[in-house]
Amino acid sequence: MKTPAAFFLAASCMLALPAAAESPATKPQLKFGEQTFALEFIGGSEATGTVNEYIPEGETLQRWTKMIAVRTQPTGNDPGKAVGALVNALKTKNPQAKFAVWKSNDGKKFGVDFITWEGNIVEFNVFIYGRAANGTGLTSHQYAERAYGEDVIPFMRGMKDRRSKLLDQAINFDYPMPVKPVADPK
Fold this sequence. Notes:
By secondary structure, the chain is α+β, with helices and mostly antiparallel strands. The chain contains 3 helices and 8 strands; from the N terminus they run αββββαββββα. It has helices spanning 5-11, 79-93, 152-172; strands at 29-32, 35-45, 49-56, 66-73, 98-103, 109-118, 121-131, 138-148. Residues 1-21 form the signal peptide. Keywords: Signal.
């Protein structure tokens, strides 16, 4: 099964190394809307930054329908350029993908939302970039939804009506601070 370009676009600047698995009872959780998400992946390094991926309880990283990701990127400090780079990568991978770029009223955050597809998978994404709180590097927050196979057409038809609400939720969501990877004891 192929994975949509959007999933790889976000991680393309970082080498993600999985953290040690946690038992379900100890995994950090968060609520987005009415749904509970559990932290399923922690990766990265000091050099590449950190990535945390949360998916709904009961889903897997191999087949999820919704995902929230929090990333730190130690290089770069211009969220507008980061969005531009993501859009360029998207257009290279899927020139037909539709997207919208926007910035916050105070100009501190930039975002992009888009829909892309590959094979029998379609994915809607919202990325929000801002400067890191410590002034070094960037943070990015992602909300994504996926549909597979026979669910693709209904997903696409319903997106027009759901997009505004999803954007509002993603932009106003209180994203957690990223959990850093555990160092390999080797």
